[in-house]
Amino acid sequence: MPCLNLSTNVSLEGVDTSSILSEATSTVAKIIGKPEAYVMIVLKGSVPIAFGGTEQPAAYGELVSIGGLGPEINKKLSAAIAAILETKLSVPKARFFLKFYDTKGSNFGWNGSTF
Known about the structure:
Belongs to the MIF family. By secondary structure, this protein is an alpha/beta fold. The protein contains 2 helices and 6 strands, in the order E-H-E-E-H-E-E-E. The strands form 2 sheets. It has a 4-stranded mixed β-sheet, with helices on one face. The N and C termini lie close together (9 Å).
């Protein structure tokens, strides 16, 4: 159950968020090796964010997964998600942080229980 939470200071008004959600879902699933049916993407726009003392376009993300993460996979995920944000929201790759959490199934609730 990978879950990617993305927050950006860019307004999502008039943006095709469906394409961002779809592309992020397929990207995360493919790189981690999990079915798309288990991937959740949360996208929040217009979040007050200052990075390096400016409020230029920036973003922060957290990706939580039950397994599937590690140094090489994380590097691929970081590059792929940064590319989506740069292409779709004009957030420069250098103004995006992504934090990874590899967790146990007992720490993830779903369907009224845990994994």
